[in-house]
UniProtKB/TrEMBL annotation:
Protein name (Swiss-Prot/TrEMBL): histidine kinase
Catalyzed reactions per annotation: ATP + protein L-histidine = ADP + protein N-phospho-L-histidine
Top-level taxonomic group: Bacteria
Record InterPro entries: HATPase_C_sf (IPR036890), Sensor_HK_TwoCompSys (IPR050482), Sig_transdc_His_kin_sub3_dim/P (IPR011712)
Top-level EC class as recorded in UniProt: transferase
EC number: 2.7.13.3
Chain ranges passing through the membrane: 27-46, 55-81, 143-163
Keywords noted in UniProt: ATP-binding, Kinase, Membrane, Nucleotide-binding, Phosphoprotein, Transferase, Transmembrane, Transmembrane helix, Two-component regulatory system
Annotated ranges, domain Signal transduction histidine kinase subgroup 3 dimerisation and phosphoacceptor: 200-268
GO molecular function annotation: kinase activity
Length: 408
């Protein structure tokens, strides 16, 4: 578009210059017009971002200088394609058509030697460098009428082309909106199906898990009451204390089960509940609570804790670190009951968070750790750029080793 517009402007100006002798004001004006016509087409570079200023500047240039109307028609097409206001479109079509008519009539009414339209209707091998006077094949009115019809047809084509481009753009926009609406409806249906499934899981968990934990807490309370009847012997007191621990842990597990059921039923609040908190982040208090629970369950737990700047640890890392300690201790108690457990926790800004849990395998309980706890922990640690490994060494010691970076 840019080379074509510049070429047409240059051709019209070149023919216009034939009407003036050298060293005349008209010839100097023609030379200035030639220099302006060369970069004139680059005005169209602004048609996408500034279609209206581009159109009006093109109209002024074609009206003032002897340029071809191609520059105006291209700018008008761009304006109609990018602006949908009715008043703007009507005004652009009227002005663009008038300027196009003026440009073509200006050339058609020039003397034969200085007119592109006259060259089109001239007899071959006459005029110009042929050395023969130019001979016209048609009368002057025919040339003028042809220029008018051409200007009107060109204006109509430019108008229809601009409206066509606008309608296609609107169609693409409408299709994009329709696709977005369809995708949104599908997402809503998926969310509805997921919520229905979550509600069903929550109902089943409430009817089974919560009921079982309630019975466990109730039976622990009954066991404590029966142990109290046995007297004040150390064995009876130990049994009562163990029953009280079971009741307390069952009550805590029941509260956690209810919290998870609430998250399933209210997904809008789930992300807030899943966020880091004092009870689910690695703090001195939460770590002491985990260690106390393990020891109260009768497990022999040895610890090596080296914590520095724990309060400055990234919140997401703190929660994953807490879950790593919790999962490792839970697996040790479940798969190796009665075996001693070793816990190492080291936290520093330089080395990050290092957690190591180990326990010997018991002879009566095979190591069949086929659950999703440890594999899920590995995925969770790796998702934040950490490393987590677990397995049995040559001494039949089971190890869980997790290393987390200081920042996510």
């Amino acid at each position: 578009m840019i080379p074509l517009a510049s070429l047409m402007c240059l051709m019209q100006t070149a023919f216009f210059a034939q009407n003036y002798a050298e060293d005349t004001p008209g010839y100097v004006f023609a030379i200035v017009c030639v220099l302006i016509s060369l970069p004139a087409g680059f005005l169209l570079l602004a048609r996408s971002e500034y279609p209206e200023p581009t159109f009006w500047i093109a109209c002024i240039m074609v009206a003032v200088f002897p340029f071809d109307s191609m520059l105006v028609l291209m700018a008008m097409t761009a304006l109609l394609a990018r602006r949908s206001q009715r008043s703007t479109s009507v005004r652009a079509v009227i002005v663009g058509t008038v300027v196009t008519l003026w440009s073509q009539l200006r050339d058609a009414t020039q003397p034969a030697e200085g007119s592109l339209w006259h060259l089109i209707f001239a007899k071959p091998y006459t005029g110009g460098d042929s050395g023969k006077p130019i001979v016209m094949l048609v009368e002057e009115p025919t040339i003028i009428i042809t220029a008018i019809i051409t200007a009107l047809v060109a204006s109509a084509i430019a108008t229809l082309l601009g409206l066509h481009i606008r309608s296609r753009a609107r169609l693409r926009t409408a299709n994009a909106l329709a696709n977005a609406a369809t995708s949104h409806a599908e997402n809503l249906q998926t969310d509805l199906n997921n919520q229905q499934l979550a509600d069903a899981i929550a109902a089943e968990a409430h009817d089974t898990l919560a009921h079982s934990l309630s019975l466990l807490a109730l039976n622990a309370s009954a066991l404590k009451a029966e142990a109290s009847k046995l007297g004040d012997s150390p064995e009876a007191q130990a049994l009562a204390d163990k029953a009280d621990d079971i009741r307390r842990q069952s009550a805590g597990a029941l509260d956690e089960a209810h919290a998870i059921i609430d998250m399933l039923r209210n997904p809008q609040q789930a992300w807030e509940q899943l966020g880091p908190s004092d009870s689910t982040s690695l703090t001195r208090e939460s770590l002491d609570a985990l260690i106390a629970d393990v020891r109260n369950s009768g497990t022999s737990l040895s610890t090596w804790i080296d914590i520095h700047q724990l309060s400055e640890l990234d919140e997401s890392m703190s929660k994953i670190a807490y879950r790593a300690v919790q999962e490792g201790l839970t697996n040790a108690r479940r798969h190796a009951p009665g075996a001693p457990v070793s816990l190492e926790v080291a936290v520093s800004e330089q080395s990050g968070v290092h957690i190591h849990i180990s326990n010997p395998l018991t002879n009566d309980v095979p190591d069949s750790r086929t659950g999703a706890g440890l594999s899920g922990l590995v995925a969770r640690v790796q998702s934040v750029g950490g490393q987590c490994r677990y397995g049995v060494d040559d001494r039949r010691l089971f190890h869980v080793d997790a290393l987390l970076p200081w920042r996510n």
